[in-house]
Amino acid sequence: MMNNDTIPAEPTKFPITPVAHTALQKRVVRVLITGQILGGIGMGATLSLGALLAAQLSGSSAWSGMAATMSTLGAAIVAIPLARLAQARGRRVSLATGSLAAGTGAILAITSVSVDSFPLLLLSLMLLGAGSATNLQARFAATDLATPRFRARDLSIVVWSTTIGAVLGPNLFGPGEVLGAALGLPAMTGAFAFSLTATVAAAFVYALGLRPDPLLTALAARTASAGIRRASGGLSILRDNAAARYAVVVIALSHATMVALMSMAPVHLRDHGATLTIVGLTISLHVAGMYALSPVFGALADRAGRLPVILGGQSLLLVALTIAALSDGSQGTMTLSLIFLGLGWSASVVAGSALVSEAVQIEDRSSLQGFSDLTMNAAGALGGAIAGPILALGGYSGLGIAAMPLVAIVVVWSMLRLRGTHA
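Structure tokens predicted for MFS transporter (423 residues):
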């Protein structure tokens, strides 16, 4: 009988032999990739419409920025509850629940336009943010059964799969309008029907495919071999664990740097005469930089180590910031800056996420991962909020300069850890 300090574990029907372990991990990664593609389609098909609907329902374009804010806020709010659900019930239940919450957001978004309710739209965008939180947690699910030798690689492959949905999703706007008209939905809401379908499908993929559950299987294996204690909270882990503090800060500051520049790029490009087509192409290249090469950075992190890849990522971020600081406002230099920005984010977040997963024992892993995702989203929201006034005061060049201290903090801390100070 289990006492109160024991975390329930899902029993498995087979011993976790090396062969069975490898086979299960491969299947888990395949399931996560499928879920990520569907989740990416769900998010990409609708979030691009959020700003337009916010302006329409509020009656002012000044409120259009609330779409990204509410989505990011929603992702931050549900990060820790989803992590706690994963610890108690497994990744299967947690990821399926997050996907269904995003599907509920799609339904409410359609309803908000039907009843002309701006507050209901904001609520729907928060729930859609749960889809982003689910996609973030999925990358950590790839590490539950991964061996240290391939942990960053497996995580990075799941991150990479987001590229497919991120590319396909925004292209469903036109077909969504056709489908919406056929279904009698309000204008600009047809894509939410695709989002609903994709997120519900993702929930089924997670619920049916993650059997046995990777996290509960890992917990069961540890219980059988060495016993297991009650999981610690995210804040207590950061207080006592220097490696965890470092990894969480790396991810948060790298994300804040990326969001600050990326969120203002469309405004800057439009102010300098770029067409919407050019703006879209530039952002697409940035997104490709964020995800397309993540397996490369994952493999490098496994071979060369997490810290060298993080330092490489910060170097790429610094290149992006320098180009932005010296930018003359041309589309070419902006595009180049955003590509380096995406690459730097990818290297830093992939290696940093691997460190988060291995900084603590399995019983503390989901707590730390949830807190890391909360911090990441909060830092991104703050970076985006501060970027607007900085852009207004100092232009895009000023924004590039203002973000450099964030990179400097990570570089200095990384060098201290490389020297063995364990700061």
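The longest helix spans residues 362-418.
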